[in-house]
Amino acid sequence: MFNNFFHRMASPKHFYGLAGILIPWLAVPCLLLTVAGLYYGLVKAPPDYQQGDSYRIMFIHVPAAWMSLFIYIVMAGAGAIGLIWRIKLAEVVAISSAPIGASFTFLALVTGSIWGKPMWGTWWVWDARLTSELILLFLYLGVIALNNAIDDKRTAARAVAILALVGVINIPIIHYSVEWWNTLHQGPTVTKFDKPSIHLSMLIPLLLMAVAFKLYYAFVVLMRARCEVLERERNSGWVKELAEKT
Amino acid sequence: MNSDSLTRAFLILIRRDLMLAVRHRAEMANPILFFVLVTSLFPLGIGANPALLQAVAPGVIWVAALLAALLSIENVFRSDFEDGSLEQYLLSSHPVSVLVLAKITAHWLITGLPLLLISPLLGILLGLPVDAIKVLFITLLLGTPVLSLIGAVGVALTVGLRKGGMILSLLVLPLYIPVLIFASSAVDTAAAGLPVTAHLSLIAALLLLALSLSPFATAAALRVSLS
Fold it and tell me: Whose C-alpha in A22, B131, B148, B217 is 20 to 30 A from the C-alpha of B138?
């Protein structure tokens, strides 16, 4: 019975309708939280005693970096579900997540670089975290490239799922190897921004932005998944009905 | 069906691949030539200063080994895919992961082992001290099988594609990074006269992990590619 429930929920037709209802309920809070987070972050929060105002890019940078890893894990998880139980919807979610995750990774890298210029005096440092973020971007690009290269959508989804699973096993290995490489090779030539226990006035906008980014991911992935579902099911009855109605 | 026939299938597959390689000797030489050539380009590119060369040697040799492995890995399934024997492996009654492991082992014997044997020469060319050359040898011994094992997953995913080669490097190179880091820093550490047991243990751990997981991932990927 439990299984049945999931399969009914995961039927493309049911999903299409449900996602359509959910999207505004996710998008509006996302917008509100973003406005609130930016207001508190850019206006209300006091300037940092060392970094002045330039630390404020953190309110974009840190949530983006969190999302970059989170989305990869979601993608691998959805891919595994698609591989094991052959649930089409999980495949769709995995595929739709990849470009969003890549964008967040890119955003984290760019904002980090912009922040690094005034703080470290250089656009790029081979710091452990920067490097592993860059490698994560390559992993995303590999997933996207593989998906684009395979014509059959279902085959592509399964191939991508395997690749994402291999990647997810490798992420901790890559992360720690890079961290170790960095500490082995070069001493702390660049004094890293020593993380002070963050003040509440900065923590609140940060958390607001983090939740806003999560909601953004949720509604954008649903939008992308709806398109993907329509494309995959274009020969089925309910899509034709839908097309004729509009 | 017993374990005897499985062992036999494993050995027969390795023998077949080795025999094929011996009959195409010229192809066997390509990765080694590439490895030597790329390594010898670096002194020409960055200058012949011995201190500088010695400093970059571990990284240069390992990056060259990585590229040589990438260049040759596509052959692990390519010809079998083209003549249809890959499908026969999937249809056979033996577990595909074991057959895949045989293919990878044979491939490593054909391409990885020669790299390993020629590496001391390159170490001498770039002026590495003897201790570091020994460590370089051990890291290649432990590391190149990891490259073959990881690469096989990438090849299995892209073997059915017309332009698989381009994507293959994008898929596989990021996954090679941990091996590169541990191996080249092991050689670096050895050149500085420090103990390298920890590095070697980590590479060995990577090898065991790849050995236990990669055949299954490769088998699954082959099933997807050939479906």
Answer: B217
User: ipTM more than 0.95?
Assistant: no
Count CA atoms closer than 13 A to B223's CA, side-chain side.
15
- In tens, the pLDDT along A146-172 reads 999 988 888 899 999 999 999 998 888
Q: Could you say which of 1.10.357, 1.20.120, 2.102.10, 1.10.260 is the CATH number of the domain covering A32-240? A: 1.20.120
Instruction: Say yes or no: B218 contacts chain A, CB-CB below 8 A.
Output: no
Q: Are B143 and B69 in contact (CB under 8 A)?
A: no
Using alpha carbons, list the distances in angstroms from residue A215 to A23, A59, A64, A120, B157.
Answer: 10, 16, 12, 32, 33
Tokens matching residue B90: 């999937």
- Most A CBs within 10 Å, among B56, B199, B224, to test the A interface: B224
Three-state SS for A84? helix
pTM: 0.88
Residue in B with minimal Cα distance to A174:
B178
Q: Does B54 touch chain A (CB under 8 A)?
A: no
Q: How far apart (Å, rounded) are the C-alpha atoms in residues B3 and A67?
A: 47
Query: Is B207's Cβ below 8 Å from some Cβ in A?
Result: no
